[in-house]
Amino acid sequence: MALIDLSKQVALGIDIGGTNTKYGLVNHRGEILSKGKIRTEKFEVVEDFIQELYDNIHPLIQQHCQDKVLEGIGVGAPNANYYNGTIEHAPNLKWKGVVPFAKLMSEKFGYPCKMTNDANAAALGEMMYGAARGMKDFIMVTLGTGVGSGIVCGGNLVYGHDGFAGELGHTIVKPNGRKHWSTGSEGSLEAYASATGIAITARKMRAEFPESLLNRYNEDEINSRTVHVCALEGDPTAIEVFRYTGQKLGEALANFVMFSSPQAILLFGGVIKAGDFILKPTRLHMERNLLPIFRGKVKLVFSELDEADAAILGASALVWENM
Amino acid sequence: MALIDLSKQVALGIDIGGTNTKYGLVNHRGEILSKGKIRTEKFEVVEDFIQELYDNIHPLIQQHCQDKVLEGIGVGAPNANYYNGTIEHAPNLKWKGVVPFAKLMSEKFGYPCKMTNDANAAALGEMMYGAARGMKDFIMVTLGTGVGSGIVCGGNLVYGHDGFAGELGHTIVKPNGRKHWSTGSEGSLEAYASATGIAITARKMRAEFPESLLNRYNEDEINSRTVHVCALEGDPTAIEVFRYTGQKLGEALANFVMFSSPQAILLFGGVIKAGDFILKPTRLHMERNLLPIFRGKVKLVFSELDEADAAILGASALVWENM
Fold it and tell me: What is the tens place of the pLDDT at every residue in B241-291?
């Protein structure tokens, strides 16, 4: 058997968002050797987008892979299908229908290409380089503009029969509850625990409490950052916004725990900047909704990965998965 | 490599319930060569129980395994821990604390012994011999006195980090809802969709509708069977009991689908005798709570295994798992 020198292996990680696409060459230790970004929304045609990626990345590969081996390409993208390597009807991207993205990438770059959605990629990144190293059972929940999730059971990412598993943001936490601005569902986790949901809660609550510091902002300035600022100044309404959000999130997490009994739940994304304002009520309401056999067992922690790099690292981790 | 003659292999499956324990010798095709049962509740001491099992089963092994090989023992039991082979604080059994059941069995019988809870065993049985043959992603939900579940992702049963995954009956489907008679939780799936929960719903609804046929029964005769009898006679109240139950169950199933995206959900247990009275509203409310990408994809079907034998078959399937 030939010995494999891990230090010589490199993966290309690409994270496609609605606005920007980030990419980086990553080694086995999760160090980014080189990175960059292009604007996703500039390209109406997917082939043009891939050409732009190639023009940007090919020189980096030539520069960094003279004494190293590029093992492959991992891509995190909204509505990416792990099994087919396609992007399917992604609402935030301009390329409509079912796009055979992995095939097009592979043909252009000459390397194998694997894809999954951004939250699954983030979970792989945590397992490979972050707070979930060595864990075989954990759930990653990303609290950003939306709520995403990646679920690892028995050391494997849960993809489901069609590659779309792990849409925990769309599970219903309050039947007949708040209507979701995009899906139309009523009472989903995302409607409460995303940055968007927190802003809705904050706007409602500041209207009820005229003395709240939240009232010093214009309507469009209300977001999880400004709520956090007010909470730090001791504003009870702002603190209640996070407590309420944490309650809804904690109730949802309890249900997830009784599904897959994870060792840890990792929280990630802009919302976690609120720190204990959100973490403490989340933990409390998770625990009180658990069966006794699950109580006090699940670590509820924040991600260890730098948010700016996590998406690239996660996408690159797809290349090492099952290697 | 030696050829293995599957037709010569036999597994011993044992299903431990609070009242009775059933056992059977099962071959690779799911045929029960011989079976029997003993009373669980007769034995205050677990060693006496195991002795009784041995006295009953050892002659069967001698009789049936002259030209066959007993590969091992699989046990389904409440609160069984797959990783440790223990039964831990099972409320319905007389043996208190943590019982090293697999070890005791193995020492007495001289064969390896694996354990899991009854619902997980049932899921393995379906995968091996029943409606889930060939499926890698499905969820089994047992609707009996309680609500149990077994979850298969990527071809593997989900045990979780501690062996206790898959307690879907205790997930909360209606925050601050009906108080559970035993756990004290408010609004769990089991409080609505178990036979016990259906009886509670039926007692409430018949009090609201004096003309309901359900009122011809005594209070203690109200159960899912008598509700079914009235539904078959066209009683609108009885039909509404199942519709309401199906709504709660369907809402819960939608959340499960968005977790692991299974190819199918299998329903099992006494409650499914109500047939379409429960299946149709369950399917409707599952579908309407799903994100569009999941709609119309998940088969919602009843178990194919004979209820009397399913527990034995499921326990025996533990022996073949990962073989």
Answer: 999 999 999 999 999 999 999 999 999 999 999 999 999 999 999 999 999
B263 touching chain A per CB within 8 A: yes
Pairing mode of beta strands B86-88, B98-99: antiparallel
pLDDT at A89 over 90: no
B246 and B141: one domain?
yes
How many domains would you assign to chain B?
2
Would you state the structure tokens that stand for residue A153, as one six-digit string? Answer: 């059971």
Q: What are the residue ranges of helices labelled H in B24-72?
A: 46-64
Cα pseudo-dihedral B112, B117, B123, B127, rounded to 10: -10
Question: Domain limits at B197?
Answer: 134-304
Nearest CB to B259 within list A79, A151, A174: A151
We report the CATH number of the domain holding residue A40 as 3.30.420.40
Please write the tens of the pLDDT for every residue from B84-98: 999 998 878 999 899
pLDDT band per the 50, 70, 90 thresholds, residue A307? confident
* Domain co-membership, B122 together with B149: no
Residues of chain B contacting A260 with CB distance shorter than 8 Å: 151, 158, 160, 165-166, 259
More confident residue, B2 or B228: B228
* Residue B91 burial (C-beta neighbours within 10 Å; 0-12, 13-18, 19+): exposed
In a domain, B1, yes or no: no
Tell me, yes or no, whether A1 lies in a domain.
no
Best to test chain B binding among A258, A294, A300 (most B CBs inside 10 Å)? A258
- A147 and A120 housed in the same domain: no
Q: In terms of domains, do A168 and A104 share one?
A: no
Residues of A in contact with B160 (CB under 8 A): 137, 153, 260-262
Q: Are residues B113 and B147 in the same domain?
A: no
Q: Does B179 touch chain A (CB under 8 A)?
A: no
CB atoms within 10 A of CB A63: 11
- A11 and A96 fall within a common domain: yes
Q: Do A259 and B256 touch (CB under 8 A)?
A: yes
Under an 8 A CB cutoff, do B254 and A172 touch?
A: yes
